[in-house]
């Protein structure tokens, strides 16, 4: 691939290396230049630009990414569409990510411009979740190198699917054990097992004595393939009540103790055809702990022995995560989960073509312009700052927002569609000296959006758990606004046209969590005179 500055007269047909703004609009990086583009760049005063030009033996970035991803595709992984030199792979089923680290490393050593990134080995995934991504750093690469990477990458990533199974839950009780504690434990355990596709069909409550527990175990093994036990008192030795009861029921202890904290006091046993996992008190909480690691390995029927469990030690220190302070260090203050820094981007640049000669954003709703009503609601949420993207009748929109705390980002490309406004807002937010952790993209024509909706998006944002996009819905229909982690900043800033970020939502479905809103505020926008009249007729403009 050729790369470097060239005289503008020789640039037609080449790939633009860096975005350029012209009077006709913004030309994004990676754009293949036409004669019309070259003329527009010349009018902008440039006579030399940096471009890339592929050679006959090269593949362009999207073809290269797609070729490598096709080599990784399998009955457990599906590739998404290639765009901007990236092609993602998604899980076809829930399970554990199996990753050959040596193979991934070998693929990445072939050519620095051809990259493959994956989730950590044995990461639990849900169907549709992003598992791996191929990114071509340059605008193209030699086909021979791409094929070499594809051959090295093939088979390095797959999903060990969880297998549905019937489970039983046994709890033991002591005189001080409350019914509320037993009910809480049952709820959290059912959810823990549901995630690995194990269904609890039997529950037992036995006294915390060897004989009573042995009876419950013997009954449970007749129909359950997985038996989970949570004792009223933790197991501290292989001869304690729970392991002794398993042996008395005819079982065999396979391993006691995990190098994972919390979850050290977990026990693995066999009882006839059933697997028994005895969990410590930490499993009463829904938070991740050592028993989860064991259950996740067992669910797809992966081999589990003492060597497997010994390997849990690497990454097994879960106790220090910020959401869970050290329990034994009573002198140290608990460290709260840090609050994310979130900006809001309000799109207010559109031409309101369906309104005729009227600008819908300036139409009165109640006693104020629509855009002011929306901006005031968004600005009252738990955000750091509000960025309003203007374009059509920008001065009038700014006047309508006079006195509100916000900053403005101008979008001269607004006639091309909403995508250009999202891009302008993303650049204003994420290219700042102190970029936010995430940004919420809001529409300026949604009169019933409330601060509570935005706050719900922020509460459900958890990048450490791959919840990097938070969308809204009502009655199962996707709505607006949508929160985006800053890892999507470059993709958002490259948008154009009228599609907005719909394709990005589709491509990153595995990282998207949806917040269900009871009313239709996240679906209701006002685009036509009739829509305004209908809305004003409901509860005097209250939107009923």
What features would you describe in this structure?
By secondary structure, the protein is α/β, with parallel strands linked by helices. The chain has a 7-stranded mixed beta sheet, with helices on both faces. The chain is flat. The model is unreliable at 320-335 and 540-544 (pLDDT under 50).
Main features:
544 residues, alpha/beta, Aldehyde Oxidoreductase, domain 3, Molybdenum Cofactor Biosythetic Enzyme, Chain A, 4 domains, seven-stranded mixed beta sheet, six-stranded mixed beta sheet, disordered C terminus
Q: How many strands?
A: 29
Overall pLDDT: 89
Q: Provide the CATH superfamily of the largest domain.
A: Spore Coat Polysaccharide Biosynthesis Protein SpsA, Chain A
Strand content: 25-35%
Approximately how much helix is present in the residues?
Answer: 25-40%
Provide the gyration radius in Å: 28 Å
Specify the structural class: alpha/beta
CATH class of the largest domain: Alpha Beta
Strand order of the largest sheet: 25-24-21-26-28-27-29
Shape: flat
- How many helices in DSSP terms? 16
Low-confidence stretches: 320-335, 540-544
Give the end-to-end Cα distance, rounded to a whole number of Å: 59 Å
Largest sheet: 7 strands, mixed
Number of domains: 4
- CATH topology call of the largest domain: Spore Coat Polysaccharide Biosynthesis Protein SpsA, Chain A
At CATH level 2, the architecture of the largest domain is Alpha-Beta Complex
């Amino acid at each position: 691939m050729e790369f470097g500055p060239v005289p503008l007269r020789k640039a037609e047909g080449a790939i633009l290396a860096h975005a350029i703004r012209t009077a006709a609009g913004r030309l994004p990086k990676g754009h293949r230049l036409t004669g019309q583009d070259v003329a527009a760049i010349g009018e902008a005063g440039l006579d030399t630009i940096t471009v890339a030009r592929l050679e006959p033996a090269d593949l362009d970035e999207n073809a290269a990414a797609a070729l490598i991803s096709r080599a990784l595709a399998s009955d457990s992984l599906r590739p998404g569409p290639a765009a901007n030199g990236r092609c993602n792979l998604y899980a076809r089923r829930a399970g554990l990510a199996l990753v050959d680290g040596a193979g991934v490393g070998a693929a990445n050593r072939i050519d620095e411009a051809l990259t493959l990134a994956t989730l950590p080995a044995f990461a639990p995934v849900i169907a549709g979740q992003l598992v791996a991504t191929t990114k071509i750093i340059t605008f193209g690469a030699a086909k021979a190198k791409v094929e070499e990477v594809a051959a090295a990458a093939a088979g390095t990533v797959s999903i060990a699917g969880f297998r549905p199974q019937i489970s039983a839950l046994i709890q033991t009780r002591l005189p001080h054990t409350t019914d509320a504690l037993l009910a809480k434990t049952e709820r959290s355990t059912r959810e823990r097992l549901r995630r690995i596709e194990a269904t609890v069909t039997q529950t037992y409550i036995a006294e915390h004595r060897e004989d009573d527990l042995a009876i419950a175990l013997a009954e449970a093994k007749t129909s359950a393939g997985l038996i989970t036990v949570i004792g009223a008192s933790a197991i501290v030795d292989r001869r304690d009540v729970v392991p002794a009861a398993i042996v008395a029921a005819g079982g065999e202890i396979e391993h006691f103790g995990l190098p994972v904290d919390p979850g050290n006091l977990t026990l693995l046993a066999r009882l006839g055809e059933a697997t028994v996992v005895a969990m410590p008190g930490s499993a009463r909480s829904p938070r991740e702990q050592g028993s989860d690691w064991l259950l996740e390995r067992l669910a797809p029927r992966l081999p589990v022995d003492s060597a497997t469990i010994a390997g849990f030690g690497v990454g097994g220190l879960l106790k220090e995560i910020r959401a869970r302070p050290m329990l034994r260090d009573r002198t140290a203050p608990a460290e709260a989960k840090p609050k994310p820094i979130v900006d809001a981007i309000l799109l207010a640049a559109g031409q309101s073509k369906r309104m005729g000669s009227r600008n819908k954003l300036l139409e009165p709703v109640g006693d104020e312009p629509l855009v002011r009503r929306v901006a005031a609601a968004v600005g009252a949420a738990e955000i750091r700052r509000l960025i309003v993207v203007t374009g059509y009748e920008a001065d009038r929109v700014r006047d309508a927002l006079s006195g509100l705390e916000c900053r403005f980002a101008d979008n001269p490309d607004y006639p091309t569609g909403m995508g250009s406004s999202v891009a302008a807002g993303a650049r204003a937010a994420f290219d700042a000296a102190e970029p936010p952790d995430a940004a919420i993209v809001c529409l300026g024509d949604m009169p019933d959006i409330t601060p509570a909706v935005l706050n719900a998006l922020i509460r459900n944002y958890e990048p450490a758990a791959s919840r990097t996009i938070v969308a809204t819905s009502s009655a199962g229909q996707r709505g607006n606004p949508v929160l985006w982690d800053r890892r999507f900043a470059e993709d958002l800033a490259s948008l154009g046209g009228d599609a907005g970020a719909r394709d990005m939502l589709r491509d990153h479905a595995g990282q998207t969590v949806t917040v269900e809103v009871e009313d239709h505020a996240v679906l209701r926008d006002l685009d036509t005179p009739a829509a305004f009249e209908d809305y004003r007729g409901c509860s005097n403009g209250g939107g009923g």
